[in-house]
Amino acid sequence: MKFSCYKSDLTEALQFVIRAVAVKPMTPILAGIYLKADGSMLELQANNFSTGIITRIPVNTEVPGEIVVSGKRFQDFVRNMPDDTITFSDENGGNTVVIESGGASVELLTMAAGDFPTVKTPETDSSFKIRTTALKNLIRKTIFAVAGGKEDKRPIFKGCCFEIKGDQISMIATNAHRLALAKDQLSESYEDCSFVVPAETLRGIMFRIDPSDIDNYVTINYSTRFLTFTFDNVFVNARLIEGQFPPYNKVIPSSSTTQVSVNTADFRNAVEFVSLMSKETEHNTVKFVFAGGGVEISSNSPEVGDAGQNIEAEIEGDDLEISFNGEYISDVLKVIDSERVNIALSDKFSPAAFTAPGNDKYIYIATPIRS
Fold it and tell me: CATH no. for residue 300?
C-alpha cells in the first residue's frame, strides 16, 4: 500500500473516528483504526461494538491496500507532522507502515486488516431525513444538558432523546436537574417515534458536520436497538440507549410571577466572571437577585472570598432572590443566539425557564439550588 494525502483532511478524519476506538479493548485490534486506500479515496474505520464509524477522505493512491494501526499513536504522529502533505507506505513488507512528511518519518507497527471487525450496517425498520445543519443545531442546543461523569449514573441520562411527530422533530436532554428542549421542522411527515442516542455519538456527528453545508441532508435509519447516520462520506452506527425517557413536559413551568429580559452577552460574561468564585463552592452556587432595573449576581466562598457583578435588565412582576449552579446558567447562554434572553421565574424553589424572544422552538429549564 502507498498513498499520500493532505494533513488537514486526515487530522479531521482521525478526530472523528477516534471516538469509536475502544478505550479498554477486549483485543488489541479494537484499539486500532482500519485504513483502506483505493483509487482517489482513503476509508477509515473504528469500531468498539457500541459505535462504529466510517469516513472517507480524498487521497492519491499509488498502490492500493489495507492495514490497521494503533489509533491513539497514529493520531498523535499525524497531528504533529511538519508538512501539509503526508505519505504512507508499507511496501517494504512485514508488519510496519512508514509515514513521512517534510523530512520527518515514523515507522509504526501494523495489525492484520483481516482481523478487524469492519463496520456493518445493522438491520433497521424506519428512516427519516433532516438537514445536516438543522441536526447540528439541535445537538448543539441540547447535548450540554446530559448527565456528566459524576452525575446520575443511569444510562438514560447519558443520551439525547429524539422525538418525531409528523413533520416535527424534537431533541431533549436532561440530567434530572436541568433540561434542554429544541425543535425543528422536517421537510416531510414521518411515523411518530422516539429513541435515545448516546451523547458521545452525537458529539461526533456534530463535530463532523460542516456548518456551511446548508443544502445537504442526513439520513437516519433506526430500529428498536440501533440507528445509523449517513451523510457525505460518513457512516455511523450506534446502539440505542434502552429505557424509558422521563416525561419531560411535566417539568416545564406553565406560568411565572417574574419575567426577565436581559442582554445575553452581558449576562453570560457576568455569570462566567462570578462563577470563577462559585467553582470553589460545593454546588458551584451563584446567587441572582432580580429587582428594580437589574440583576445582582454574586457568589461567596468561605475559603476564598466574594465575587459579584450587577447588570441591567428589564423585569416585570415580583422581585426575586434565587440560586443556581453557575455552570447550568452559563451553558445555556452559550447556545442562545439572540441578542436578549428571556427568563421566567416563580419563586426561589421552582425551576426557571430560559427562552429566546419570539422563538417557540427552544426552552431550557434549570432547577434552583435550595440555600
Answer: 3.10.150.10
Domain boundary among the residues 217, 250, 283 is at: 250
Asked if the model's pLDDT at residue 151 lies above 80, the reply is no
Q: Are strands 51-58 and 41-47 parallel, antiparallel or unpaired?
A: antiparallel
Does one domain contain both 239 and 342? no
Coil, helix or strand for 77? helix
pLDDT of 150 strictly over 80: no
Give me the sign of the Cα torsion angle 321, 324, 326, 331. negative
Residues 6+ apart with CB under 8 A from 170: 161, 162, 163, 164, 181, 182, 183
Distance CA 45, CA 34 (A): 5
User: 269 and 314 share a domain?
Assistant: yes
- Residues 39, 10, 236, 242: what is their CA dihedral angle, to the nearest 10 degrees? 160
Are 229 and 279 in a shared domain? no
Neighbours of 353 (CB within 10 A): 21
Q: Express each pLDDT in 317-352 by its tens digit.
A: 999 999 999 999 999 999 999 999 999 999 999 999
DSSP structure class, residue 210: -
Say yes or no: 287 and 349 in one domain: yes
d(CA 53, CA 49): 10
Q: Cα(362)–Cα(354) distance, rounded to whole angstroms?
A: 9
CB burial of residue 305 (10 Å; 0-12, 13-18, 19+): exposed
d(CA 206, CA 231): 12
Q: What gap in Å lies between CA 165 and CA 167, rounded to an integer?
A: 6
**What angle, rounded to 10 degrees, do the helices at 326-335 and 264-278 form?**
150
In this prediction, residue 339 carries a pLDDT of: 98
Listed residue (290, 292, 291, 288) closest to 270, CA to CA: 288
CB-facing half-sphere around the CA of 34: CA atoms within 13 A? 22
208-220 confidence digits (pLDDT tens): 998 888 889 999 9
Identify the three-state secondary structure at position 16.
Answer: helix
Query: Which residues, including other chains, have CB under 8 Å from residue 26's CB and lie 6 or more apart?
Result: none
